């Protein structure tokens, strides 16, 4: 065994010791530490407020397809956290993704290398024909995933990723296929402006950034959740455009 | 034994993933393998976060025609929301890392970090 590997093992062992120490801490009275697996106590956690859809007042019963005009009308509680209660975090998150996409484009375009890595040639017939069929279906699946983000698993990020995959397949099949830089920028900026604009409108009319200002409707209906669906649609377009941009820069590098 | 496995497969497994990733980051010389190790660590942290919010025999935090009211037992939705963020950031970091690797390969014509001038290991 090389000395380097031995050293690495020692470092890993020290790390393992430190991490396992965290599991043996005995909590003092009223203190919360890491729970045992499968025994998370939600009544102590902020999560119970989100599940009861009442952050400010007492909890009440929410019934699927019956309760209406709740604080957050999304049937998917994760979505109500991501796109409503903590949507400011999400704004920061897509900003990070945007910065990464911009960074990749800058790094790869600083000086173009003379040697092209992939010899551009016609893809096989199977790939070409298959993608002609699957491309609209993928777009449709992506749209379904982000439109139903507040009702079922999925949402803007997943839908955006599926849409970006569709464009990746298209680029793989047809080396002449090219998305204009301008259109990607347009979609991305428009989605970002919609997101921030919704936030500012909430700030002006309701007093806090990104606060929901539409009627929340009945839980479980397609038109429910107020601004959640609009925000998730904007996120989907932004994420789709950003991931497409990343894939495009990496392929063209 | 089964109880132990059930209790520790997620925490222990996620910690193991983090440690394997750490070992890989330290010992590997190929830059692509280092990035894979980083992605492994990322996965381990995500798994750990989700496992911390798990409740035995509880439902996914979605109201639907089967789980009709919020009085049912749910797993913690907040770690899941955090992990959603974490996955996206992980993808972004991985992409940026790969872009840097492409540029370094252009300049030095090697993926081995020990053969790159100016870096010693």
Description:
The complex is a heterodimer of chains A (253) and B (121). Chain A has eight helices and no strands. With 253 residues, chain A is mainly α. With 121 residues, chain B is mainly α. Chain B has one domain (2-115): Helix Hairpins (Orthogonal Bundle), CATH 1.10.287. In chain B, 66% of the residues lie in helices and 0% in strands. Chain B is built from three helices and no strands. Chain B has helices spanning 2-27, 31-52, 77-108. The longest helix of chain B is centred in the last third of the chain and has 32 residues, at 77-108. Chain B is elongated and about 60 Å long. The interface between A and B is large, with 66 and 53 residues. Chain B: It holds the Pfam family Oxidored_q2. Chain B: It is a multi-pass membrane protein. Chain B: Its main location: membrane. Chain B: The chain crosses the membrane at residues 6-27, 34-55, 81-105.
Helix-strand blueprint:
The complex is a heterodimer of chains A (253) and B (121).
Chain A: H1 3-23, H2 47-51, H3 77-85, H4 87-109, H5 125-147, H6 156-173, H7 181-206, H8 227-252
Chain B: H1 2-27, H2 31-52, H3 77-108
